[in-house]
Amino acid sequence: MPTSVPGLVPSSTALLLMDFQPAILAAVADPDRVLARAAAALSWARAENVQVCYVRVAFTDDDFAAVPTHSKAFARVAQNKLLAADSPETQIHEALEIRAEDIVVRKTRFSAFSTTDLYTTLHAQGIDTLILAGLSTSGVVLSTVRHAADEDYRIYVLADATADPDPDVHRALLDKVFPHQADIINADDLSTLSGGRLKL
Q1: Among candidates 138, 122, 115, which has minimal Cα distance to 56?
Q2: Comparing C-alpha atoms, which of 65, 63, 102 is closest to residue 86?
Q3: Considering only the top CATH level, what class is 4-199?
Q4: Domain ranges in the chain?
Q5: What is the mean pLDDT of each run of 10 residues along the chain (200 residues)?
């Protein structure tokens, strides 16, 4: 981890809570821990008036039909009608409160920006900084880091509010891949990110 992390401006920052859904949480080793850290980040965002964005992956019948049979990631999902949009298993976990002012998007691929209007919505609000938390590290987090970097966002990844079914992959991404495009911090560090430099 870097020895210092740049501060942020809450008014131009968004917290993305991605794929915190029962079906996805069930695939990681310690879902309660990562959910608790995401909730801590959410509490910080509420206190600082940071824009909160919820992202979930879920499919309608039309979405299932649109998945090509050669898709290694989603062909099985479509064939077995997994992650149906109206299923309780694809809703945002009840531990994370959704408010009227929050942005909520539904996607049918990995990145939070793919198949959604999230970029347009955030751009219209002057958001230039993203704080990412989600499941899994090698899925939505990886894809969103890459996409967000290509859109020139400043990116923070919450190491303790992300998780992956493969702990080795999780560590490799946090330690070796993400730092090239994002600052890696923990949820508790957010309270010191009001400006200047954050000493870790």
Answers
A1: 115
A2: 63
A3: alpha beta
A4: 4-199
A5: 72 97 95 97 95 98 96 95 96 97 98 97 97 98 98 97 97 98 95 57
